[in-house]
Every structure is written in structure tokens, then in C-alpha cells.
Amino acid sequence: MSRDPVSATETIRPEWAAIDQLPTVELLRLMNAEDRTVPAAVAGELDRIAAVVDAVAARMTRGGRLVYAGAGTAGRLGVLDAVECPPTFGTDPALVVGLIAGGRPAVTAAAEGAEDRTDLAGADVAALALTPADTLVGVSASGRTPYPLAAVRAARTAGALTVGLACNRGSALVAAAELGIEVEVGPEVLAGSTRLKAGTAQKLVLNLLSTAVMVRLGRTYGNLMVDLRATNDKLRERARRIVAEATGADEAAVDRALTATGGRAKDAILCLLAGVDAPSAARLLTASDGRLREALRLARP
Q1: From the centroid of its chain, how far is CA 144?
Q2: Under 8 Å between Cβ of 229 and 263
Q3: What are the Cα distances from residue 27, in Å, to 34, 36, 104, 195?
Q4: 83-109: buried (b, 16+ CB within 10 Å) or exposed (e) per residue?
Q5: What value, to the nearest 5°, has the Cα angle with vertex 194 and ends 190 and 198?
Q6: I need a labelling partner for 253 at 20 to 30 A (CA). Which of 30, 32, 88, 134 fits?
Q7: Tens-digit pLDDT profile for the chain (301 aa)?
């Protein structure tokens, strides 16, 4: 039986065969030097990442969702990115979703056999009832992991936009998707351990993707997280700083605005900059689809 060729991320580099004999600091220097190559590899894919961002944002403007699908490290990174969107950008938890082979238990416990279960991928995608407004991003270091590959195929059949994110060129995952991102990171210092450079590359790309999409959707004001959910003392203090930075208002005015708006920083900023009350700010933001700059324009005809 023929075997698939070894991918770059699985390649064994002979010159690293004695890393277990290196002094600790030399081992760390080697790993750190390899890590420094990852941002440059991501930079080479920025045009393709930008195309994905614009396509996803256009669909989410129409009510679509962003879904990640992966196994192992790739799946966990997708889940991580998804669960961080609500507190950071004030999104509904159903708007950005992470699917992982083996389900939620696989987030905290290895479920390596689940990555081969294409039937699970089909069922997980079917449960979401994807539409043409949705986007599914399959994430896999090798680009041939069965779970994300099957998820991409199922999503494409459902009419959703599909994206493949891999760390090898010419991957089956990218070939199956409509749009592709291939961050070629090369062999790992620990051969085949794609939680290292490949995992770092995937994390960087997902950071870029979700953050840029939310910026395009008006979920920020400049570089301020105006839609954050202030659910603890640290975040309530951050909301105060954000409102003060955006408006230049003094502490008392900031506190009054936040109290009036139920702690919503974006509404408080609009109240202070446009001189409107909290109900008017809410109406203006609804009329502008949550975009603060547009709401300010509407408030100042």
C-alpha cells in the first residue's frame, strides 16, 4: 500500500538529532530562532488572509457566522479564538464557533483518534445548519487531517464559504476549499510536533482573521475595544479607560455615562461625544448597525 509523502511539518532534520544533548540554554536558543521564522511566513500570506477577512466580513454583515473546524492543537486554537470573541468584541457566542474533533472534551483531554472520524465532522457541521452567509475555516498543520477536510467538504455542500488554513503547500485541505491560506513553517525542532511552529502560525493567523473581521464590522473604535463586556472589576476599569481615552471626559462624566448606559462603553462614548442621552445613543447605534463612527455622523447631521 502506498503512503502519502511526508509533509514539511513532519520532516526530520538530521542536524537536530542531538537536541537532547544540548545545554538547556542552547536548546532554547535553537527553538527561539525557529520561532522567529514564523511571523515572516505569515507575512507572506497577508494578501490571502486579507481576501478571507473581506469575504468573511461581507457575509457576517448579512448575518453570517464564522466557524473553525480542526483536530488536536488546531481544533483547540479555533475554539480558543471563538470563545474569546464575546468578551473582546461583545459578540453573541453563536456568531463565532469552534468545532473540534471529539467535541468539547477534546479541548482539555487528548482525543487523537477523533481526527480520523469524518462522520463526526459531517454531523458537527450538519448541526449548525450552515447557510451561504456562513464561513467555515478548516485548520490543519498538515492540510490533510480527515476531520477538518470533511468539515470543509460538508460546509461547501451546504453553500457556505470555505477556507483552508494549512502549514504546507499544495494541501488537500486548501484544494477542497474556495479560499486558502498556506503558511509554510517547515520542519519542527521536535519532529512532527506541530503544536510548535505550526501552532504558533495558526494562532497568529486566527488572531489576524478574527480581529480584522471585527474591525471591519465596526466592533472597535480606532484601536479601542468599545464592545467589550465589562463582566469583572478589571474589565469595568478597562471600560472606564476606553471611554476616557475616546472622549477626553473626566472621571465623573465617564462614570455617569457608563451608569446611564448599563456599562456599555460604546454607548457611553456616543453619549459624551454627541451629547445625547442613553436611549438616543442606543437608537443611533441600532440605526448604524453598531458602528460608532456612523452613529456619530448620524448624531451630527
Answers
A1: 21
A2: no
A3: 11, 15, 34, 17
A4: eebbbbbbbeeebbbbbbbbeeebeee
A5: 115
A6: 88
A7: 345 566 778 788 888 989 999 999 999 999 999 999 999 999 999 999 999 999 999 999 999 999 999 999 999 999 999 999 999 999 999 999 999 999 898 888 877 778 778 899 999 999 999 999 999 999 999 999 999 999 999 999 999 999 999 999 999 999 999 999 999 999 999 998 999 999 999 999 999 999 999 999 999 999 999 999 888 999 999 999 999 999 999 999 999 999 999 999 999 999 999 999 999 999 999 999 999 999 999 998 6
Provide the grid cell at 293: 463612527
Q: Is the pTM of this model over 0.90?
A: yes
> What DSSP letter does each residue of 244-257 carry, written as one string?
HHHH---HHHHHHH
Write the burial class of residue 121 (CB in 10 Å: 0-12 exposed, 13-18 middle, 19+ buried). buried
Q: Point out the residues that are catalytic.
A: 84, 115
Other CB atoms within 10 Å distance of the CB of residue 19? 15
**Grid cell in block for residue 298:** 448620524
Among 166, 84, 68, which residue's Cα sits nearest to residue 125?
A: 68
Question: Grid coordinates in use for 219?
Answer: 466592533
Cα 132 → chain centroid: 20
Separation between Cα atoms, residue 130 and residue 126, nearest integer Å: 7
